[in-house]
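Format notes (please read before filing issues)

Several people have asked whether sequences and structure tokens are stored in separate files. They are not. Every record keeps both together, in the order shown below: the sequence lines, then the token lines. Line labels are part of the format and must not be stripped during preprocessing.
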Amino acid sequence: MLERTPYAALYSRVQARVQLQPVIERERFAQLITHALKAAGCTHTLLSDSGLELLRQASRGLPRQAGRILRIAMQLAVPRGLNHLPDELLQQAIEEMR
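Then the structure lines:
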């Protein structure tokens, strides 16, 4: 995006460029999500294995996108009094993102 003509001056001043790659491997993605949830203070399992796979596919392995889906799913879970995120709730969160 910065390569475009209106941003050429800014682009020429950027010293370091990082391009993040999606986390495609199932195990690595599961570890990433589990670590992020623990770092946020979660002490129990929120997602089933099928839920993690659904999240990985919907987010295309992008951690930020996965976080957005999880945030919406958690917002949907709170009024229902749930302490986990069932696959149906994740699917609903994914649909709301579209």
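For reference, the curators noted about this record: The first helix runs from residue 8 to 13. Residues 22 and 49 are 19 Å apart (CA to CA).
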